Amino acid sequence: xxxxxxxxxxxxxxxxxxxxxxxxxxxxxxxxxxxxxxxxxxxxxxxxxxxxxxxxxxxxxxxxxxxxxxxxxxxxxxxxxxxxxxxxxxxxxxxxxxxxxxxxxxxxxxxxxxxxxxxxxxxxxxxxxxxxxxxxxxxxxxxxxxxxxxxxxxxxxxxxxxxxxxxxxxxxxxxxxxxxxxxxxxxxxxxxxxxxxxxxxxxxxxxxxxxxxxxxxxxxxxxxxxxxxxxxxxxxxxxxxxxxxxxxxxxxxxxxxxxxxxxxxxxxxxxxxxxxxxxxxxxxxxxxxxxxxxxxxxxxxxxxxxxxxxxxxxxxxxxxxxxxxxxxxxxxxxxxxxxxxxxxxxxxxxxxxxxxxxxxxxxxxxxxxxxxxxxxxxxxxxxxxxxxxxxxxxxxxxxxxxxxxxxxxxxxxxxxxxxxxxxxxxxxxxxxxxxxxxxxxxxxxxxxxxxxxxxxxxxxxxxxxxxxxxxxxxxxxxxxxxxxxxxxxxxxxxxxxxxxxxxxxxxxxxxxxxxxxxxxxxxxxxxxxxxxx
Length: 533
Known about the structure:
By secondary structure, the chain is of the alpha+beta class. It has 3 domains: about 1-85, no CATH class; about 90-270, Collagenase (Catalytic Domain); about 305-515, 4 Propeller (Hemopexin), CATH 2.110.10. The protein has 11 helices and 29 strands. The chain has helices at about 1-20, 30-40, 50-70, 80-85, 135-150, 220-235, 260-270, 305-310, 350, 395-400, 495-500; strands spanning about 90, 105, 110, 120-125, 155-160, 170-175, 190-195, 200-205, 210, 220, 315-320, 325-330, 330-335, 340, 345-350, 360-365, 370-375, 380-385, 385-390, 395, 410, 420-425, 425-430, 445, 460, 465-470, 475-480, 485, 495. Strand 18 (about 380-385) and strand 19 form a beta hairpin.
């Protein structure tokens, strides 16, 4: 690699005398750094070209290829933005594997070409980070990283003792650790992993300051890094989708730990399939209490006179902090269970929700927080931990710039973490991290959400991470991957009264339990949609 860098530097000097160059203005040290980086991560050969002009052209081409892969403006020039990207902490696995690795790219994700022949995999931890004296915390971060992949695939993972045989060995090591790919100290390469054909082991640089606290802004988050590396252990290459977990560059920790994106899901499911549906042990009905529901074998509960007479709602929402689902309607609210409506409901909103308004337009909950937002007319209220925050209500126009008053429904879409508002035949995407928060091409027509009607009443993410739209007495389950209403042998829309509230006096299109898989079987694949919302 050093020879290649010297050759390119010589070429630049020659061209600077005789004509323009895409590398003019770059220092010799920067050129050497870039040439070494591009060779290290698979964009160029580490052997020098025979002539200097050829080396220069090749380097400019390699820079352009890197810029395209990293989502930068493609100029072929070694500018400050490109150098800054090259200096970001990242995974040590190459971005471009070359023909000998038989890498296969599908859309943006890439499959290396090998996979495990079994779906029940074991792993062991044979050494620990020297700067993080919390083996239990490290073990949990590793387990959660595997769980992230298990949640969206047919794979299962189990930790075994360090002395036992395992499919994947995990260890922390520094510098040269006898695998032919030495680490480089703090920053730079954080970790690397081997594809299944080479054993699947994952190594983490022990010179890094690892952390298991997602709120910490010091150190490298072990969960985020491990989840990425285990993607390689399972057969995934780097993705050119910068939002994907399998993009090569380190991402700051996410409090929600919901890090597997659409690109990653498509890749892992191509190799190992979708997670199997899990049938409940006993027939269960609708509602918000459990993680699974079988809509086709329901034990009815005592009918609620209000909801079973008119099952339309002002809002239905699940609170992430307690995993319970609530229904707001007029001045009343209900809490749902696996079998319909919990006993001793309805209750008055004014008596239990610390100042939340009656007759709400919409309710928003956010994953990873204890905050709940209530929208009505031109105002909104914010509650934290079921206690109303001071200074509310406030104007929607002030707190949610770009969103109209009198919204009909709102929710946070799990695949991308953005907030979506609905009203009439239009919807808005709201991103507080963007400027402006609502992009100029919004609002868009609701029919972008294929199969969802206009004038919905409510929308929510249930605890199984599935999306549900409600309109009148009917509801729709949305396929977040194919971005359309779910295709089922019992078609949507379905009865809210029968399936969610357990109303026995409501007609439903129920069939035998074996005719269709449960609506909310835990472990179904969730991820980004196939097209932008």
